[in-house]
């Protein structure tokens, strides 16, 4: 039995030899002639033997099936540890055939067993107990696997034997390894407590959270005077209120609970969210252990507190609408914003504190968000319980991942103060700060709204400009000018009453908008009333000034369908009124429109004239009135357009000044004149001084002076080669800047002259302070001498001013010998005009100079 390979579990077809021999002898005896009675006895014995052998065969088959059906390896060992038999699971587990195992010592399967390993086994078995041991088995290929072996004793053929069942522990070891790795790697704290609330085990995260390093094993750091425990609201907790104690007491899971722990020695506060699970041993009605799983939420708690604080400071609150439960949840700050002492339980309570339009907005937004998503942002207005109104900005969206759109959440922001400030700013943005009436933007907006409604198409506009306002402003100063504008707006407002809407358009210009549908003559009536309102003079202390109005009238739709078009038509009518003598009113007509179109054509083509080289300069000689010798010349610009033909300078120069194109044109004139001076000098004609006109728009900081210096340097000319002529308007635009520019130009050697002196009304205020060289007598006055007494008086006055200030004097527009003789007698040394020569081309001027 120890080395033959014979199975203890026999083949079902085998029987003991004694049984076979007995049956053979019975069958032989039955074949002999025997008494009938004896033969019956033998036959019964043979049948009984056959039945016994059949039952034994069935039992053997059952035993064999049971032996091989056991899923764990089962080995039958002799008393000395030799393998007598092994089941099919053992053959498969060890990776060896049955023949390789049976008859071999158990060390073949357990090579690490010590020499006396059977002694403790038999000692346990003799006491009638089962011996259990964990060992490592070895397969036929040399690989190992852990097993837990359960051994029991029995006798076979009178010999003591051992049946050993080996349970493969590989999966259990893997599970335990994974469990250990999980406990060691997760950032959640895990502790196992016994019934005395002592710590049986704790993972590294628990040690890290509670800083348990150096503590005695099994000591509960939370069950000491060093720790104070509070609930999430800051109320102190006794040990019996701890979730662990509750789990032991109730035998139920205590779900996530927030508690705070304050460590006195270190002044450290920890907040955790803890879940406790009771563990029951077999046949126990109370847990003997409790597992606690917890997370450190200290930062989250701090962030939440800071977030609540930030919400309060920023006036931002949170909300959530549970459509399924029909419940509305509000944060504390949201309740404060809405003025709710108790949070609304449903959406209707929130809607009740909003005004009607806001309620409908919110309902529509909620329904749309539930169906289509995408989020919404609304500005809603309502009233708090204390009667104060509020504005909120409400933002909301379906919570991510909510497929059924059951929850819509977002924020409230209190925007009451910004809204009130916005309304204030809107009012300020629509109001002229000086007069308190509507400003330009507000008037245009109102006019646009009227014109957009066909039923209001009969609107009329009165464009009002104050005559001689600049005189008051320049003579008495800006304060007096402001007082005049305030009084003027009052007079217009009183004259208009409720029949029109008054706005200040800027400077001394006002606009009145009125409805002319029911009364077509209303615009004219209002214009007449305004004119009469300005009949009384304006008083400023002891000074009295007569200020009148020039008014232009335009109607929709005849004179324009757009605000700017209608305003422009009224503006044109106002300028025509000024041209005709001021102090009255005039309605826009087709002739004005034609002139307007002409002006637009001129301005449109003027912008491209430089690029198309349509400008040229001609040069009119300036001569010594006594000898007739040419001493200088004035550069005059000419423009010839292919569509418009030759245009007079007095036409296109004013357009260029209105559009600002005069700045680019002036730069071109400066370059072209200096280029021509250089060319004449290179041809041996000497240095000829050229006078050019400079517009008031070319004054911008030190731009003009820098420009003149750059051009002179470019052509290598001295400053004396240039004479710059300015109109009197330059003198009153910006005195400090003008003085600085004039001084820089004079330092370069450039001659400075005031052109058309006497036509303005403010030059004398500034003339004495400017570093200029001379004056030019306007052609307007020269044309009447020597016969017109008024023109003679003006010429004598200007001549006297020039003499007293030591300034040179040039007369322009001289067309007759009588005018030349008069000017010589007056002491005017230099003149220009058709009497001597018109504007000449550069070649013609050079020829005349020779």
Automatic annotation (TrEMBL):
Checking InterPro entries in the record gives: Biofilm_reg_signaling (IPR052155), EAL_dom (IPR001633), EAL_sf (IPR035919), GGDEF_dom (IPR000160), Nucleotide_cyclase (IPR029787), PAC (IPR001610), PAS (IPR000014), PAS-assoc_C (IPR000700)
Alphabetical list of PROSITE patterns matching this protein: EAL, GGDEF, PAC, PAS
Instruction: Please provide the record's keywords in A-Z order.
Output: Coiled coil
User: Is Coiled coil given among the entry's keywords?
Assistant: yes
What residue stretches are annotated with the EAL domain? 599-850
Coiled coil region boundaries? 42-69
What is a single Pfam family found in this protein's UniProt entry?
EAL
Taxonomy, superkingdom: Bacteria
Q: Which residues form the PAC domain?
A: 376-427
Any idea where the PAS domain is?
Answer: 59-128
Query: Where's the GGDEF domain?
Result: 457-590
This protein's name: PAS domain S-box protein
Q: Which organism is it from?
A: Stenotrophomonas humi
